[in-house]
Amino acid sequence: MTTDMSTATDNTASAHNLLLCLDCATVTTAPATRCPHCHGHLHRRKPASYSRTWAYLATAIILFFPANLLPITNTTYLTQPPQADTIMSSIALLWHHGSYGIALVIFLASVFTPFFKIAVLLYLLSRQTPRRPPRLQTRLYRFIHFVGRWSMIDVFVVALLGALVHGRFAQINPAPGIFAFAAVVIFTMLATETYDVRLLWDNYRKQPCKNPKSPATG
């Protein structure tokens, strides 16, 4: 049984000169350059997707180390000297005091999610010419795009604690690590937004169709 890749290529929106506005989801016919509804710029694919994603991702990887090694908060209790806490030490402290649920949520949102997003983006960028339909890559991209909205929970927790505890026998101030962590989240979100998973399908369809001849019978 043979596969006809040309049929799949002809059924794409790009083959029919259709452009999708990424701002309002309006479908327009090429060669339009502006969306007729929101006047946003129209492109067949996100411009310079690979190079921009690599730039944002490399910045996020560099900032990932100070985000986890530098303290994110400086806590002062009455007359005691300030105590600096990193993300992992904060998680360990919450776990030690029995707040297992909060510790797990912060670990997943502040440590696992950024690391997982970076790993998935590296995997996607290294698979630019897939030999098989990139269904797995598409699912992974959709997943990191969905979970990215929860990555800033650690920043919100620090801001909330600082507002609630300020002046009540203690004081919590943000430390340099929290700014590095916020930058990691922002740059991973930018990398996710600039990456265009449709390019994987384009590269897959451009590959020569392999139609092995059926063995001779008789």
List strands and helices in order, with pairings.
Layout: H1 5-10, E1 18-20, E2 27-29, H2 49-69, E3 73-77, E4 83-85, H3 87-96, H4 100-125, H5 135-147, H6 153-165, E5 170-174, H7 176-194, H8 198-206
Antiparallel strand pairs: 1-2, 3-4, 3-5
Helix pairs in contact: 2-4, 2-7, 3-4, 4-5, 4-7
Question: Sheet bearing the most strands, described?
Answer: 3 strands, antiparallel
**Global mean pLDDT:** 76
The rough form would be described as elongated
Q: Pick out the low-confidence regions.
A: 211-218
- How many E strands? 5
Strand/helix succession: HEEHEEHHHHEHH
Proportion of β residues? 5-15%
Counted up, domains total 2
Q: What structural class should be given to the helix and strand makeup?
A: mainly alpha
State the share of residues found in helices, binned by percent: 40-55%
Summarize the structure.
This protein is mostly helical and 218 residues long.
Textual characterization of the structure:
- This protein has 2 domains: 12-44; 47-206.
- 54% of the residues lie in helices and 9% in strands.
- The protein contains 8 helices and 5 strands, in the order H-E-E-H-E-E-H-H-H-H-E-H-H.
- The strands form 2 sheets. The protein has a 3-stranded antiparallel β-sheet. A two-stranded antiparallel ribbon has the order 1-2.
- Keywords: Cell inner membrane, Cell membrane, Membrane, Transmembrane, Transmembrane helix.
